[in-house]
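Q: How would the structure tokens look for this protein?
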Amino acid sequence: MTLLLVGIFGGLGCIVRYVMEFLVRLWHPTRRPWGTVAANFLGTVLAGWAVYRLSSPIDAHLHSVIVTGFCGGLTTASSALAIPVLLAKSHHWKYSAALIITSPLLCALGFVLGMGLASH
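A: Here is the predicted structure in token form.
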């Protein structure tokens, strides 16, 4: 049952990421990956919350569904790494470097923020 729910919630996370990227591009047409950055940040905040809040053996099933499923589908390392390469190929070196440096830091901050929100 957990495997099925992880798959379903992973698909939901992918859909949420797609909608976020679609809405960002609709409201602010750009090649810059603001939707991907926002989805990665949101996913790491939620993962940080879940890791802190769902730590008992009883919560293991829900933890897998939220962190591995939904957050795994919502966040994307492949896009986070592919987009800077595409930007660099278009000679946007500074923006590409900024994404490579700041995206992991932003996600780490989001994870800590999620843990902080869960502790209150």
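The mean pLDDT is 88.

The two ends are 31 Å apart (CA to CA).

Upvote if useful.
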